[in-house]
Write a structure and sequence with these properties.
This is Xylanolytic transcriptional activator regulatory domain-containing protein. Pfam families: Fungal_trans. InterPro entries: Sec_Metabolite_Reg, XnlR_reg_dom. This protein is an all-alpha fold. Helices cover 49% and strands 1% of the residues. Strands 1-2 form a two-stranded antiparallel ribbon.
Length: 701
């Protein structure tokens, strides 16, 4: 890829047809109105502009265009005041008033009908395009020049919509491809005038396109020779290309600023957060997510009232308007889930609130078809990616705000009744999951359908997240309540079972993303920590727990070759595992070889791992552990539970190098021999002195 490539390989200068003012990506009335707008901005204060038209029709008939200002004076219309909607836009734009609150200053003005309370015609981005700084135009063009050619884009979009988009279902394919076609036809002469002359959806589209391409490159086969042209430097990889594309998309958003945001702005922000998270920049991902949430709130995605306003304002067919409403509510629910998931995982504050009666909750509807209204999905209809998200939300994700409140409240004893109640509700909901995603004996009739090839992996990802919610629910109480220890252990084992199945459904190209790292790390650390602190409890599942830890270690070792997060996590987990093995007596033989996990493929234990335990152990001695009856000389409840993701990415948790042999640990777990000396067992990081990791360091002999 070179910087002098044309954006999308298709944007070029073309002469306008005589008598025609249509320019792709630019509102038709705007193309003929710009000279008059410049004149209006040059006139003395007090001169009024024509009012906006709410019924402007576009020659393309596309739903991606929003209403535009009709300021064509050649029609001989003598308009003397701004319309109400235009005046409100100016107030929101210049003073930052919310357009979504009827009790704000802007809401009061709207109620009493004061459209002319504030006029600043030159601040309208459409009308002030001639005032656009040249450096902004140059910067915008320099960024969009970094887009690959249309041929490369088409290759990557096939991968994205077939195997990537299902993870979050952020992008609607029909809308996206419509916008791509419009963007590809934008003439160079239009780009020279700067991004402000473009329709808002099209103006921000390159930012979304950059993020879609970057996210796709995390999954796309790295040896695809068709994409070699994207690597402009010796030794450059597709991952390097992905990082540059994602950074360019972020620069587009920063250049455009916070005014005039669109759904594409929010989508690009969410995909950017996902990319940063996959790259190990978890704190940066959290901040990016927060920005996307604020952008969504500016658009009113969190309220059904604004959804109704948007539906009335945007032109298009009935089906386009209906799907737009669904898209907006879906994106807000995704943001809400992400917000509380990251808040719980990282111990950070949340920005959203649980959906209430003011929010139009998204429905479980059939896959979109062009020109067809959204239709409720019946049991016989194949699930969609968003069906999976909704199933997870109804079963478990909706309890994340409650868990976050308990977590931030300090795990008070008086809150344990809520913990018990939520646990019962989630376990009941798990038993009520739809047949196609239930944990035991799921209905797989949809798995082989052409449009559902993603479903087997989505099912396991769903179960991992659902059981993570249970794990997070009990985490604050694992060192104070025996019942929470038992429940957390079982939830952790379910996570590891789902992750094992997901691993064998995956290909090496999938290992660059964070999903299997985060879930496995959290589960293994909590399981190991519980047995280290309470070795005489839950002995009936000790063998299964050790098997799960070992299989998790094997997966992290493999993932570490592709993902630096997995490599860091592997060192921490191996350290804990070594400590646990030294605490357990009776293991006279090494555990079964774990070499099978080195390469994804058919697994001889897959039938057993599938819906039950990790399978029978090869050596029977593992089912006869002699656990020491050891009592601590301190109160275990005084030790705070570990938060692996927070500790790893915020407190920079790491482990010493384990390099010398130890016959009790299979070298295949480490890629070599191991040494469990005091130095190698030391945990480094910026964690607090009273943390779980400080306590572990104090126990090193």
């Amino acid at each position: 890829m070179t910087l002098n490539q044309r954006p999308c390989g298709d944007i070029e200068s073309a002469p306008e047809e005589e008598g025609s003012h249509f320019v792709p990506g630019v509102p038709p009335t705007e193309a003929e109105a710009l000279p008059e707008a410049r004149q209006a901005c040059a006139e003395p204060p007090g001169r009024s502009l024509p009012e906006s038209s709410s019924n402007t029709e576009h020659s393309t008939g596309s739903s991606i265009f929003a209403p535009t200002l009709d300021i064509d004076r050649r029609r001989g219309e003598n308009r003397s005041a701004l319309s109400c909607s235009h005046g409100e836009d100016l107030l929101a734009r210049d003073f930052g008033y919310s357009t979504n609150n009827r009790h704000s200053t802007l809401g009061v003005l709207h109620t009493i009908g004061s459209p002319g309370a504030y006029e600043s015609p030159c601040t309208n981005p459409v009308e002030s395009s001639s005032e656009q700084p040249e450096d902004m135009s140059l910067k915008y063009r320099s960024l969009v020049r970094q887009l690959p050619t249309r041929a490369h884009i088409d290759i990557l979009l096939e991968t994205f919509f077939d195997g990537v988009n299902w993870h979050y279902d952020v992008v609607d394919e029909i809308t996206f491809r419509d916008q791509l076609d419009v963007w590809a036809q934008v003439p160079y002469s239009t780009l020279q005038k700067g991004p402000v002359v473009l329709e808002p959806d099209i103006r921000v589209f390159p930012a979304l396109l950059f993020q879609v391409l970057a996210q796709t490159l995390l999954y796309h086969p790295s040896d695809d020779e068709r994409l070699e042209a994207l690597k402009y430097g010796t030794g450059m990889t597709l991952l390097d290309v992905a990082k540059e594309l994602s950074a360019a998309g972020n620069e587009v958003l920063e250049l455009l600023g916070k005014r005039g945001g669109t759904i594409g702005t929010v989508q690009a922000g969410l995909l950017r957060a996902a990319f940063l998270k996959s790259s190990g920049q978890v704190v940066e991902a959290w901040h990016t997510l927060g920005s996307a949430i604020r952008d969504a709130q500016e658009l009113g995605l969190h309220t059904s009232e604004c959804l109704a306003e948007s539906a009335r304002a945007r032109p298009g067919t009935e089906s386009q308007v209906a799907w737009d409403r669904e898209r907006r509510s879906r994106i807000w629910l995704l943001l809400h889930i992400w917000d509380f998931h990251m808040a719980v995982v990282l111990g950070r504050p949340s920005l959203t609130t649980a959906p209430n009666d003011k929010f139009s909750f998204p429905r479980d509807i059939c896959q979109r078809q062009r020109g067809v209204l959204p239709t409720e999905r019946a049991d016989q209809d194949p699930p969609t990616p968003f069906s999976v998200i909704l199933a997870g939300y109804q079963a478990a994700y909706r309890y994340l705000p409650t868990i976050h409140t308990i977590q931030t409240g300090g795990a008070r004893v008086e809150d344990y009744g809520t913990v018990d109640q939520v646990h019962k509700e989630i376990t009941k909901n798990i038993r009520s999951l739809p047949a196609w995603c239930r944990p035991d004996h799921p209905d797989m009739r949809f798995d082989l359908l052409p449009n559902c090839t993603w479903l087997p992996a989505a099912r396991e990802a769903l179960l991992s997240l659902v059981y993570f919610v249970l794990l997070a629910l009990h985490r604050p109480y694992i060192f104070t309540h025996a019942e929470s220890r038992s429940r957390a252990l079982r939830a952790g084992l379910e996570i590891l079972r789902s992750q094992a199945r997901l691993f064998y459904l995956s290909q090496p190209r999938d290992f660059k993303v964070f999903n299997m790292v985060y879930a496995s790390l959290d589960a293994i650390v909590l399981i190991t920590a519980i047995y280290l602190m309470f070795p005489t409890e839950n002995t009936e599942i000790l063998d299964s727990s050790l098997s799960g830890i070992e299989w998790g270690l094997g997966r992290l070792a493999v993932l570490g070759d592709y993902n630096k997060m997995a490599k860091s996590a592997h060192g921490v987990v191996l350290n804990l595992y070594g400590r646990l093995r030294s605490r357990i007596a009776g293991a006279q033989q090494p555990h079964p070889p774990i070499a099978a996990v080195q390469t994804p493929g058919p697994d001889p234990w897959s039938a057993n791992v599938g819906r039950g335990d990790f399978g029978p152990r090869v050596d029977p001695v593992w089912s006869n552990h002699v656990v020491p009856d050891h009592t601590w000389d301190f109160a275990p409840e005084a030790v705070p539970p570990p938060h692996p993701m927070q500790d790893l990415f915020i407190d920079h948790l790491s482990s010493g190098d384990i390099v010398a042999p130890d016959a009790s640990i299979d070298p295949l777990l480490t890629g070599g021999a191991v040494d469990m000396t005091a130095d190698s067992l030391h945990f480094a990081g910026t964690y607090a002195d009273d943390s779980f990791w400080s306590f572990m360091n104090s126990l090193v002999p």
